[in-house]
Amino acid sequence: MAASSAKDSIRDTLDWVLKLVVGALLLSSSLNVACHQVRGLKNRQMRELPDTQELVGTWKIDENSLERLRGSHDALTKTSVDDHLLILRRDGTCFFKTYWAFQSDGSYTASEGHWRAALVETVAGSGEKRAAVAMTLAPTARGEVTTEFWVVREKGQLVLWKYIGDPDYAQYADFHRIQQ
């Protein structure tokens, strides 16, 4: 009888451990499904603001970004280089023709507005701030729109960029300044 009781106790303990392991595996896999971010990507955000004069000018989307738009998001139909333009003027005004959020055609706008270089929180409430160009666009039927493009220096040149869709997929819309 004591041997049977010991076997039952071991069996109960093994059942409990098995349930714990299965639960941990299910939790782990659900976290991986919910967060698709690729680990080990280089940080595309600058801690310091660039000189304002480096930001003044005309910025156009690059062809690689247009390919990402065409391939990753059926809801985005503005996929021509002429559909995307940012003009940042010395007096702090701007012209904006692109998506203020690369998620749906409803966020596409062509508008005058104001811009400034700013340190912006990467995640609300995190306290971690990075360089961005903040643009406030003229009010439309949707109201006033404020949007930011992150700033990074790659190969010695500034790039203004924004995530396409879910940031966890690490797809970017990159804008490069045109030399005039």
How does this structure look, described?
The structure is a single chain. The protein has about 180 residues and is α+β, with helices and mostly antiparallel strands. It has two domains: about 35 residues; about 130 residues, Lipocalin. Helices cover about 25% and strands about 35% of the residues. The chain contains three helices and eight strands, in the order ααβαβββββββ. It has an eight-stranded antiparallel barrel. Strand 4 and strand 5 form a beta hairpin. The longest helix has about 35 residues. The chain is elongated. About 10% of the residues have low confidence.
What descriptive keywords fit this protein?
180 residues, Lipocalin, 2 domains
